[in-house]
Amino acid sequence: MSDEEHHFDSKADAGASKTYPQQAGTIRKNGYIVIKGRACKVVEVSTSKTGKHGHAKCHFVGIDIFNNKKLEDIVPSSHNCDVPHVTRTDYQLIDISEDGFLSLLTENGNTKDDLKLPTDETLLAQRISVSVSVDVK
Q1: What is the DSSP string of 6-28?
Q2: Is residue 27 domain-resident?
Q3: Domain of 113: which CATH number?
């Protein structure tokens, strides 16, 4: 065995854990798709009939899940598209500490205390809606 260390520099990320392939013809409205490198929620899908070159085409209109911009793409229905792994987690707000940290209740009853309110002025200027439900007994 050699005492040499081997380093492998990766120039690109395969992204295997971020997306998975799915046939374009099976993607439906309210699903998710990657359009121009951005994760989008599909708001409209239309499929054209097969033409003289033999492929039906799917026209996708999606809304970027991070910045709400509208994106469009046209893909042959038999080709694969990248679909992002999207999970949604809902929290219930318990408290906001004086130093700006949130105390959140997870779905399984644990608390999450490592999230801090933004300090950037542009983010603070935006409206943030927080739904708080209080049970009075």
Answers
A1: -----SS---TTTEEEEEGGG--
A2: yes
A3: 2.40.50.140
